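Subject: Sanity check before I submit

Could someone independently write out the C-alpha cells for this chain? I want to compare against mine line by line before I put it in a report. The sequence has 287 residues.
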Amino acid sequence: MYNKSTMLRKNLYSMLLILFLGSAAAHAQSSSSATPIPVDEIIRKFSEKEKAFKLARANYTYRQEVTVEELTTDDRVRGRYQMTSDVGFDSTGKRNEKVVYAPESTLGVGQSTLGMTKEDLDDLKNIQPFVLTSDDIYKYKLTYGGQEKVDEIGCYVFDVEPKKIEKDQRYFQGKIWVDDRDFQIVKTYGKAVPDLHKGGKDENLFPRFETYREEIDHYWFPTYTRAVDTLKFSTRNIKIREIVKYTNYKRFGADIKLIFGDSVDDSATGKPSTPESNKAPAIGPKK
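---
Independent answer below. Compare away.
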C-alpha cells in the first residue's frame, strides 16, 4: 500500500531536482567553454605570436639531447639511440648543428629491430617542438575545446589536425594548450602524421609525445619532450621511449641581429631579459 498524495509530492520534488541539476550542469559546461574573446580572435593572436617566436628562436643557440630506446614488455632497454648536439651559428652567422656526443646506436642490433629514419629526424626538429604560426595555420583544422588550467597556467585548449595530407610532408595531430595571457603554446600532446604503411619492412610508425615549454626572454621555448608508446607494426608490437631535452638557450651575439623571413619589431616585445623562472606544466620525471 502507498499514500498517493505523498508519492505525487515525492515525484514533483524529484522532477524539480532533476531540472535543477540539469540546469547547473548546462551552466558549468557553457562557462567552461565560454571565452572572453571570440575563438577566431584567439587563433589569430596566438598564431601571430607563434610566428614572432619562431623568428626569435632562429636567433638563439641551444643544446639538444635526444635519447630513443626500444623497450621490452617489462621496460628493459633493448636498443638505444643517443645524440647531443649544439645548435648555433658558424663564423659567418649561418645556422649549424655541432654533434658533441653520439655513441654508436644499438637500435637495430641484436634483438632490437627499430631504426631511426629520415622522418624521425625531421620530426625531432619540426614536429615535436611544434610551432603553429600564422603562415601555417591554413594547413590545419582547429577545434576549440574549452579552457583548462595546466599547473597554474590558464589555457585555451584546441584539437589540431591537418586539413589535407600532402605527399612527403609531415604534420602534427593532437592537442595544444595556449596561454590565455601570452597567447603562445605552452604544451602539445599528439603525434607526427602520417604513419607510413608500405607493408613489410617499409612500415614507418611514430609515437605519441608530450612537449612542454618554459618562458625565456618573454617567449615560451620548448624544453622537454617525452614519448612512451607502443608502435603496432603488422608483424609485432614494439614499445619505445623517447626523451628530448632543450637547454642553455642563449641569444646569438650582442650586436648582431639575424633575420629569417620577415623582420621582428623588438619594440613590441621589449629587450631580452634574464631568463624567468615561470615554467610550463609540470613535466614529470626526466628519465
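---
OP: Matches mine. For the report I'm noting this point. Residues 186 and 213 are 5 Å apart (CA to CA).
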